[in-house]
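COMPLEX REQUEST
Ligand: guanosine-5',3'-tetraphosphate
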Amino acid sequence: MSESGSEGEVAREVERRRTFAIISHPDAGKTTLTEKLLLYGGAVREAGAVRGQRAARHATSDWLELEQQRGISVSSSALYFDYAGKRVNILDTPGHRDFSEDTYRTLMAADSAVMLMDAAKGVEDQTRKLFQVCRLRRIPIFTFVNKMDRYGRDALDLMSEIEEILGIDAVPADWPIGAGADFRGVYDRIRQRVLLYSGGEHGTTRVDEQVIEGAIDEPQVREVLGRDYDDLAENLELIEGAGATLNPEAVRAGEQTPMFFGSALTNYAVEPFLERFLEMAPCPDGRVSDQGKIDPVAQPFSGFVFKIQANMDPDHRDRVAFLRVCSGRFAKGETTRHVRTGKSLRLMNSTLIMGNDRHEVDTAYPGDVVGLFDPGLFRIGDTVSDQGDFAYAGIPSFSPESFMRVELAAVLKRKSLEKGLAQLVQEGAVQSFQAIETSSASWILGAMGPLQFEVMRHRLKGEYRVDLQLTAMPFKLARWPQGDFDPDIFRFAERIMVVKDAQDRFAILAHNQWDLQRAIERNEGLVLSETADPELFEAAR
Ligand code: G4P
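STATUS: Structure written out below.
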């Protein structure tokens, strides 16, 4: 049994932890913002370091070559830094939509989310989907409107777009002063003060900040704002008039999103965002298990696996299981339990990930992410716990959006294929289904998009020496029937196929929403869920 650490020590560490993920559409500026946050935390000295490390890592991995060729980021890790006494954990997520399932899972390990949007674009497709996952979990969501240094859309417009499209109350925590080349800073509504910025060569260093304390109608505020005053005063009055007041409880319940404005590139208004965010974002709370809520402080060490990263080194089929610590103190070298198999587990080779530098860690606390060397033991959602007598609710499977039928080029390779696929499914790299109508086993694979299939094929070939032929199928979504389900109702359906997923649950594949709607109308009592385990969202709150 590993020592749980004194309760006082764990309580102090939990209290100061903030673990979150950034959700955004590609190109909104997630990498740039992450870099700036690390800069304020002193974790990197130069902006550009995150990007640089990304490039360097490509040299170490074979299948990650694919990332480089395509200019995408497939893998994600966790970054941490300390700021104003807080330990900040950023759960990094891949930007490309084809890997968004990875992001969905990562969101199950976050305590809050930052929704980043491009001021010129507003709510984009990818953000909308990721937002829905945050919503299901009811985690607090903070909005950062980026690229204010360019001419974008009207801030009031963006506010109502968030409310209309996402159905969450958007309440400005600050308000931009000037826009585009004339973007000067923000008015901080919480502290009632003006923050003006100058200098900074594209944000490689910290910028100069001028703080003018005072409510909007005070003379010094009017004076410093000059020609920007009338515009700001009018907007603030409109916002007040609309009753947009920040309510910390509504924020914590995920009903209200505080809105911040700034420019990650020029570094304007990034630090005040970080400060306010860290004040308002929650620290780790109890997580639901099959034995009720597990208190992060009172219980000994436990956590769950939310991501498995394979093959960082092409010469070994090694994997790293990313574990979110949920309770107690993680101590390197201690023995704990892998709950699903009942095996005892020595916590060796544990790493904290900082960019792509891997540090050995000796201790970690709730909210932290630890990378564990995985000899093939872990599956997504597995619980590790000293007590070994409870399991955290797993991680839901989300509907793939693209399906392929597997053809095997050489029949003799069937065993290798089975093994390889089983492994990749366990890692969550791809979902597998079996048609219920065929007698011989035939696989249907589901993924978010073509690149995910490409990575999978690349890995099956590299690691298992199996060549696959994949034939595209016309389906675009999977749904999981809830309650009693009779597969015969779709026996003659042309545009719907009944399958079983890797855990032997019925699922149906459909061409589009319209087909689903028709199926529901024609079959009274048919309830279809977008995830295999909708109850897990309840549990993960
Ligand atoms: P992502 O991770 O969300 O995909 O976005 P990333 O940070 O890579 O930013 C995408 C592009 O947007 C980059 O430009 C970046 O410099 C720019 N950008 C990010 N934040 C801001 C901002 O606040 N203002 C402005 N004007 N631009 C911003 P790029 O030309 O694609 O790349 P690079 O050559 O600058 O690296």
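REMARKS: DSSP finds 15 helices and 31 strands in the chain. Confidence is low (pLDDT under 50) at residues 45-49, 51-64, 66-76.
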